[in-house]
Amino acid sequence: MPIDYRILASIHTYIHLGDFAQHMTSRLVDFAQRDHWMGRQIVDLGCGTGESLKWLAQRGYIVTGVDISSEMLDIARKTTQGMSVRWIRSDIRNVPDVKEMDLALALDVMHEFSSLQELQEVFQSANTLLKPGKLFIFDLYTIEGLVDRSSGEDTLTYDQDGVTIFAHNNFDYERQIQRRDYIIFRQQENGWQRQDTHRILRAYPIQGITALAQRCGFEVLHVLNQDMKPYNPGESTRRIVCLARKRA
């Protein structure tokens, strides 16, 4: 069953869907600048509800937001109301009419793809969007991170303002997939309305991901842990962040 972004968009604030992008965007741009990156044209792949774009647009960057969900884009437009942002509704594996970017971001999105073939298509797409020598920055959960995210079975995630959300976690060790099911109750005049949705995330071997990026025309400059320190193979971390430069 495909992910219903229409429902997820309606509860994005309650389940903190944009928190990672909101927390990391400024840190990643600062890190890139300290590593000699310069540029103004930025594309946010899988921009969701626009947390990264808002921060970037407020600081004068020329930004493009790409997402497959019209509901997410509607929220992002409201989030960035009055700011200059270009919007494209598209699968990030095939983005039309975007090129010559200085930076491509894909935050909290790569682990939603279900195979290495699909990730290869994302890398190839990002490559076509960027100028030579410019950066693609993305993150991924580790297996450890997804197992940790699955801790606890049923959780009351939100219970305010006539909205109650329960979450149920499940981790498939064989396929390295974490699924979180959401049950949403909304108070109506004549009772409660129930909706169900879910989010599925997949972990990939870090060495395999970096090798794939290299095959798609990137040089992997940095692999960072969740604290923005260099990641050492075998160490404990819930996520990794990669900075990859398009080869000339």
Characterize the structure shown.
The chain is of the alpha/beta class and 248 residues long. It folds into 2 domains: 5-143 and 205-246, Vaccinia Virus protein VP39 (Rossmann fold, 3-Layer(aba) Sandwich); 145-202, S-adenosyl-L-methionine-dependent methyltransferases (N-terminal domain of TfIIb). It is built from 7 helices and 11 strands. The protein has helices at 5-10, 19-34, 51-58, 70-79, 116-129, 143-149, 206-215; strands at 41-45, 62-67, 85-89, 101-106, 130-141, 154-160, 163-172, 177-188, 191-202, 218-224, 239-246. A 7-stranded mixed beta sheet has the order 3-2-1-4-5-11-10, with helices on both faces. Helix 3 (51-58) links the parallel strand 1 and strand 2 (62-67). Helix 2 packs across helix 3 (51-58). The protein is globular and about 60 Å long. The mean pLDDT is 95.
